[in-house]
Specification:
With 232 residues, the protein is α/β, with parallel strands linked by helices. It has a single domain, classed as Class I glutamine amidotransferase (GATase) domain (Rossmann fold, 3-Layer(aba) Sandwich). The chain has an eight-stranded mixed β-sheet, with helices on both faces. A six-stranded mixed β-sheet has the order 7-6-8-9-12-13. It is built from seven helices and 14 strands.
């Protein structure tokens, strides 16, 4: 089964005292004590980001590692990735992430991993990247559409409630036909796809939701059923 868990925001980097989404991700692995690999490309391999990843996951029942494109742990990225159970992609600059991945053929390696059952997940840039298109601030001047990997159909907008400009920008881009219809997720929400279809939507915050956003004469925003994972 091919699985992608797309987070609007949250997880260890945004909710250090609320591990519900990250624990949910770990539970989806086929085996106990799964191998999880963090890819921090979008942040420029931020040392602080990598440290926070290990601070959290070293305390869980898993075997964490990370893949740096600036200080590669191996020349054989494919073997390194395919032995993992979960690949977790961090936030940051989506455009730089895509450019570097393609330069290293990591986009195709991740597609192979996905097809072989490795769970792909991530937040913000690490969510957008899996869709055909996304809403990004990578260009430094407002929010714009960006072409992504296309593992999942449609477009994606993270931080839907966390950044005040996200919702109106996504609506405007869809209405003006600059981006196709898709799915938006509040901070603290994870959309869990199985074989390219939404299987479940979960949240670490009581009021956080996901939405289908489309256009028929006007923008239509449909709230999707979201399961709150409970207090921690």
């Amino acid at each position: 089964m091919r699985q992608i868990i797309a987070l609007g925001g949250g997880g260890f980097s945004m909710e250090p005292d609320n591990p519900l989404l990250d624990l949910y991700i770990l539970k989806q692995a086929k085996r106990a004590n799964p191998h999880i690999c963090f890819i921090p490309t979008a942040s420029g391999d931020s040392d602080n980001y990598i440290s926070r990843y290990y601070d959290f996951f070293n305390q869980q029942e898993c075997q964490p590692s990370h893949l740096s494109l600036f200080e590669p742990p191996t020349r054989d990225f494919e073997s390194f990735i395919l032995e993992k159970d979960i690949v977790y992609v961090g936030g940051g600059n989506t455009k730089n992430l895509l450019a570097l991945w393609k330069e290293w053929d990591l986009d195709e390696i991740l597609r192979k991993a996905w097809n072989q059952g490795v769970i792909l997940t991530g937040l913000s840039a690490g969510s957008i990247c899996w869709f055909e298109e996304g809403v990004t601030d990578s260009y430094g001047d407002g929010l714009e559409p960006i072409q992504c990997l296309g593992f999942l159909n449609g477009s994606n907008c993270p931080h839907y409630d966390g950044e005040i400009e996200r919702r109106p920008a996504y609506h405007e881009l869809i209405e003006s036909n600059k981006i196709q219809s898709g799915f938006a997720a509040d901070d603290g929400v994870a959309i869990h796809y199985k074989d390219q279809e939404i299987s479940k939507i979960v949240s670490s915050r009581t009021n956080a939701k996901a939405y289908r956003v489309s256009f028929e004469n006007s923008v239509i925003e449909t709230e999707l059923q979201t399961e709150f994972l409970g207090s921690y």
